[in-house]
Fold:
Amino acid sequence: MEITAEVLVDLHHRMVRIRRFEEAAGALFENSEMPGFIHLYVGEEAVAAGVCATLRNDDQVGSTHRGHGHLVAKGGDLSRMMAELMGKATGYNHGKGGSMHICDLDLNMLGANGIVGGGIPIAVGAAFANKYRKSDTVAVVFFGDGATNIGAFHEAINMASALQLPAVFVCENNEYGEFTPRRDTMGVDDVVDRAAGYGIPGVVVDGMDVVAVFEAAAQAVARARGGQGPSFIEAKTYRFYNHHGVQTLGVKYRSDEEVARWRERDPIVLLEERLLALDVMTAEDIEAVHRQVQADVDAAVAFGKESPYPEPSALLEDVYTVGGVR
Amino acid sequence: MEITAEVLVDLHHRMVRIRRFEEAAGALFENSEMPGFIHLYVGEEAVAAGVCATLRNDDQVGSTHRGHGHLVAKGGDLSRMMAELMGKATGYNHGKGGSMHICDLDLNMLGANGIVGGGIPIAVGAAFANKYRKSDTVAVVFFGDGATNIGAFHEAINMASALQLPAVFVCENNEYGEFTPRRDTMGVDDVVDRAAGYGIPGVVVDGMDVVAVFEAAAQAVARARGGQGPSFIEAKTYRFYNHHGVQTLGVKYRSDEEVARWRERDPIVLLEERLLALDVMTAEDIEAVHRQVQADVDAAVAFGKESPYPEPSALLEDVYTVGGVR
Amino acid sequence: MTATEASVRELTYGAAFTETLRQIMAEDHDVFVAGEDVGAAGGVFGSFTGLQREFGEMRVVDTPISEQAIVGLGTGAAVSGLRPVVDLMFMDFVLVAMDQIVNQAAKLKYMFGGNTSLPMTITTNAGAGLSAAAQHSQSLEALLCHIPGLKVVMPSNAHDVKGLLTASIRDDNPVVFVKHKRLLGQKSYCPEDLFEVPLGSASITRPGNDVTLVTYGRMVSESLKAASVLASEGIDVEVIDLRTLQPLDTETIVASVQRTNHCVVAHEAVRFGGLGAEIAAHIQEQAFDYLDAPVGRVGAPFSPVPFTPALESEYVPDAAGIADDVRAAVLRLG
Amino acid sequence: MTATEASVRELTYGAAFTETLRQIMAEDHDVFVAGEDVGAAGGVFGSFTGLQREFGEMRVVDTPISEQAIVGLGTGAAVSGLRPVVDLMFMDFVLVAMDQIVNQAAKLKYMFGGNTSLPMTITTNAGAGLSAAAQHSQSLEALLCHIPGLKVVMPSNAHDVKGLLTASIRDDNPVVFVKHKRLLGQKSYCPEDLFEVPLGSASITRPGNDVTLVTYGRMVSESLKAASVLASEGIDVEVIDLRTLQPLDTETIVASVQRTNHCVVAHEAVRFGGLGAEIAAHIQEQAFDYLDAPVGRVGAPFSPVPFTPALESEYVPDAAGIADDVRAAVLRLG
Ligand SMILES: Cc1ncc(C[n+]2csc(CCOP(=O)(O)OP(=O)(O)O)c2C)c(N)n1
Ligand SMILES: Cc1ncc(C[n+]2csc(CCOP(=O)(O)OP(=O)(O)O)c2C)c(N)n1
Ligand SMILES: [Mg+2]
Ligand SMILES: [Mg+2]
Structure:
């Protein structure tokens, strides 16, 4: 895939949608207007946007506990997302899943997942289905640096390699698992060093540079689509907010200086500088995108707030598929 | 550690003990005189012998379903072993464990294990205890090539690396997991390619050459003992018999030619040729070792046969440590 | 030989499994098998013999030793519309994949607000009696029956293997299909054509009037043996083979107990916290006034499975022990 | 204010946990803690706050996200004579490490013929009510109680946290110590010095004559609330807090039921196949002739835990539901 002006504009739009959605969700959360746990994607937008822009609708996406960005980037409906985060009946999961399980199976986004690494084997299963059907559909799975320490990751990526499945493994390396620095939990400098142990190609990209992510993803996806098997992308990125919610309460585990350094490389600002420099968009165009997206997000929040909660009778529905004998 | 004549003689003795023990166990099994499943170590003797000869009594050994060889090499008592395999009260585990759980905690052999990869995290826990106590004891863990595909392996070796524990990981690569060729289950040429993903050193050795194994193990153990962390050894080896039991019944999954080729490199024969060439032992000396070991094994078989089964009252003993409040 | 006897087609429990799978795979291309050694080797218990030769490597997939990824493979493929059969060899290995089964497969549909179905069958082999020791002998069905979203099946004979496996694979939910290792070689009646035994329906294997004996899996034959012995003592036992454990056919059980006024539940699993506890608790709730004696429970004692045959034979419940408990229930002095 | 009230020392349930651990670690150098974020961060629920600063990185170990290896670390260290406390954060994650807990830790001693002890405590946090959805809200104790070799503890208040945690860490067996997330901030009486609440002994939290209400964990406070309401209706409820679930203090339960002739068991876990089933089954076995009504069971319905507060509040059992079941038991028409 070529980086045309159109692609750049599209990447920008995806990132802004994630950012604005997450800022709104974070504000509601900090204001106790949103139940449960939320893990925000702010700072990491270039990864989801860069990867998902290379995908077709029928390509599957496996996600994590930090999954809003993946769904937005795949084209998720902001209103149904916001309603879900609020536990409303109109949400994607009718309020039963919330942030950690949000999904859109029509978009082939196979759900956020509350178990670290838990979504990886499932995405590999989707990749298997693609190969089984002899389709050229590709399954992409996102996971954190911390997730590469868990058994499910290892088994699943090895399975994809052994069976030569059309899968792309995207590690969002934000250098922390919750409050623990990555370097305390693994003996390698780069997570990508693990790819060789599965006999699959791996690359490191600047996860704050959406174009770099897009290019690496385009290659990996093309490879998978062409039947040449799985590959691994490590995107070096950073979350601007806390592991969970916005503010860091309690023990400070990252220095102000470190956070500031990364914030200077805000992936949206970096892309906007490029868009301006390349004359692809004017400051007004950019401003208009933000305004339009913000209006969409505001509408989503309003939709969520106005939506009803599910009826108590929903409690025991959808535990099983009933009458499921064909 | 230096390869003195004494060491060579010791290595030979360990290997012959394993071989003779396993041949006897296999014969009893094929003759339906031994209950349950047994996974024989014949063909792989150089690995257990070469590694265990570098260990002290207080060094721990973690094992697998194919564990007899590890216990014999660590100095296990053949009579208590044979009795255990027969389910007798005089066995190491008083008949409660059998082949797949045989252990000698006085020798710090932490038990065979029926779950592929299941023993690896436990051995890493022993390595942790060594470091915790500031002792220079080392934990060595054996596992198959197939076991490197399971999550527990990945988590445990990464944990050992992250915590810089005194552990040595020894992969017995016999190119099969049960009846499935290794190459169908992983995308790497050598299992050792996985070590880099954990940031630990790894070497490949000829697992039929006990001296090569010994030298690699001596280095890895010294490294761990010196506080320099874990390392990985891949020993290329082969099992002469079936995955389970002696004869291959049903589908033939290895060619006669392949088996014959490996049998030509019988690790005991190779060492004996060397012993003769170096004038360390004469043919008579070698013969005497075999004779003596065979007598020990015969005595072990007799001991096992004569020993009583446990009393029914033993059934509910040792489920818990009772009165265990200190 | 009567006409009926002449036409009785017998198959082993294990062969019924293989035949059923072959027939279903022939009629439904969405069905595939994945697991360790299921391909060329045909599975460690021969359950998949010949299938790879017939259907190819894509439909009968040898996997790495990776139970979590095996179940995940099934889950992801099922969400994508296929109908996977994934094998875990020994029921003890279910524990290795427990997160994928319980946190993922069982819950996905509900967490997703209903927006998927998950037509996956997990096959495995349970049970003691082969001196396979504590990690290769467990009956862990109680763990799975407690989990909303799963179905659990444990057939006792070749006929039910066929009917239940067919229903399991065609079901749109995750089903754990548990064979008993010691039944694999047992021959019994099995029709040739595919048919379904509906999930959730128990069968009354032996009608009787004095006491209801609720059981499943390998304990069905032990229960029938016990019933014969008891018949000679004048105790008329009704034996119910549950066949499906989740959903549980409580109606059949309760109706029987209301008639017999006595009940014993027998399974091979550990007694404490086993499925027998749920059944006994349920019966006393639903048929309290009908019970002339407490619901008895037969199960393994509270220990891991011992290796040595000397202890394992004490460990596994048998006809004699079941008969004792039935006698105690029936002959209880009010 | 009376003299007794003045001397009552109060602590939150969570703080009692931390204080106990600190005191035990100070007196026994063999005790260490390992888990995700337990070090500098002090644990996601603050349960380990300050311990790493006090005892150093070797005794309070931040691990990778590797639940299997965390439990294995504990098991191997315990077999080597240390007394590990390993943390699994959420009880749902027990499932990720299920092989290491059930196939390894629980069985090693037995499989080894007794030749080891395994003094490991696994700590975790269970329970719904925080909109944490289906993978962060489960109460899975029934799965563990069914496994010979494990002990299982679920305290309901700060005092018992201290006494049970002390007993658990000093016990030579693998103990799963389960806190309830919603109790962490609850204040109640807690002595300063270390003491033990023996594992396996229930406490009668509220004596009563009309009906025995058996419960544990967060359902203890709901049960006490129900008892107050029922008292005003003239129903005198005896509330038993089990404290330890395995081994189960059946003596205390049965003795109470023999006196009250009525019983209800209440827990937050899913009702079907929950520990309540074992307790009800056991009571009807041991106190059949004393029961004037079936043993009632309160538990969560058969579904995964829903995210939205609108449904979760319906899902989690509460005082009103417990009171209903107690009334049904006591007022039942023979
Ligand atoms: C199996 C499991 N263990 C632990 C947790 C708790 N937990 C949630 S997110 C997280 C950190 C994940 O780190 P990483 O994979 O790097 O993703 P990030 O949050 O940095 O995006 C942890 C430990 C969990 N949800 N699942
Ligand atoms: C978790 C688990 N999965 C599957 C098995 C069945 N099994 C026993 S041995 C074995 C093959 C192991 O292969 P490898 O690790 O290479 O050891 P080898 O037998 O070749 O020595 C398998 C699959 C098991 N015991 N445990
Ligand atoms: Mg991270
Ligand atoms: Mg092998």
Summary: Chain C is about 35% helix and 20% strand. Chain C has two domains: 3-189, 203-330. The interface with chain B takes residues 36-37, 39-42, 44, 46, 62-68, 92-93, 96, 130-136, 301-304, 306-311, 314-315 of chain C (CB under 8 Å).
